[in-house]
Amino acid sequence: MQLKGIHHVSAMTAKAPANYNFYTKVMGLRLIKKTVNQDDVSMYHLFYGDEKGNPGTELTFFEMPMAGQNRDGNDSISALSLRVPSDAALEYWTKRLDEFGIAHEDIRPRAGRLTLAFRDFEGQRLILISDEHDTGVAAGKPWSQSPVPAEFGITGLGPVKLTVHEAAPTAAVLTELLNFRRKGSFPNIDAPDQPDILVFETGEGGSGAEIHLEERHDLAHERLGRGGVHHVAFRVDNDDELKQWIEAVRKVQFPNSGYVDRFYFHSLYFREPNGILFELATDGPGFDTDEDFEHLGESLALPPFLEPKRAQIEALLKPLETANPQANF
C-alpha cells in the first residue's frame, strides 16, 4: 500500500469572516466548501483549495470563537507549506505581503527549494514553497477568479513540518507503518543548534508528498489554539485501500476512529506516539458531489445525514457571506 501524498491540513481559527477574507482576498485561494464540523455542528468548517478543491490542495479551518492563542511547541504540526509555481512567484509574494502589511522572512532555502515563511493574522505558520525544480506529485490549478495572477498563484499543499521532542518514534510510524521513504535531511535554519530536519516522502514524491520531521530539545509541549494546526491527512486512492489501512493500524494496536464517512471523502484517524493526529482520507467522492462547480462554497453545504437538522444548525451559526466571492477583489 502506498499513500499518494498530502490530502489536506486542518487548522484552527477564532474568526471565520476574517479567515475567509485573508485566505481568499490575500492568498487568492478559493473557498470550495462552507460546511460545519461534523463532530460539533456549532462551528464552521471552511475548506480552501485550488479551483476544484482537488486532493492535495485543501487547507481547512475549524472556527472556534473562544479558542485561546496557540502556544507553539513540541508534539505539533508546526508549519504547513503552500506550493507556488516558481522562484519568481516568491518575489511576487514578497511584494504582495508587503503591500498588505504582513511581516515575513527573507526568501531562504529549505530542503533544496526556495521558500518564504510568514504568519497569518492569528499566527498560523505558513511557508510558500517554490516548485521551480520540483518533480513528483502534480500541483493543482489556481482558481480562475483569484485576485492573484495564475502564474504566481498557490497550486496546493507542500511539505508539512512536524516538531517533536524525540524524532525516532514518529519516524518509525512514517516508515514502518505508513511506508514513507527516508529522503534525506537539511539544517534547521530556524534553530541551528538543534538536529537537522529529516525529510520523508511517499507516493510519487516531490513537495506535495513530503513530511519534514523536526526534533527540538528546547521547547515545551504545544498548546493548541487559534493559529495552530489540528491534523494532517494523507491521500488514499479509494475505499478498498482505506479498509486495508484500517486493518494495518489495528494490527499495531493504535487507538483509532475506524472508518468515518465524511461524505466528501472517507477517513481513518489515529495519533502517532508523540500525539500528533494523522488522518488517512480517500481522494473521492469530492467537493462537487453536492454543489455545482461554478458555485462551490457560496452557501452552507451539509452532508445528507445532517440535512434534516439544517434549521437547528443554521441557528447555531453566525451568518458568513460567501455568495459573491470575487465581489471584493
UniProtKB/TrEMBL annotation:
PROSITE patterns per record: VOC
Gene3D superfamilies in UniProt: 2,3-Dihydroxybiphenyl 1,2-Dioxygenase, domain 1
SUPFAM superfamilies the record matches: Glyoxalase/Bleomycin resistance protein/Dihydroxybiphenyl dioxygenase
GO MF annotation terms: dioxygenase activity
Family matches, as Pfam families: Glyoxalase
Keyword annotations from UniProtKB, A to Z: Dioxygenase, Oxidoreductase
Start and end residues of each VOC domain: 5-131, 156-283
Coiled coil: none
The name this protein goes by in its record: Ring-cleaving dioxygenase MhqA
InterPro entries with a match to the protein in the record: Extradiol_RC_dioxygenase, Glyas_Bleomycin-R_OHBP_Dase, Glyas_Fos-R_dOase_dom, VOC_core
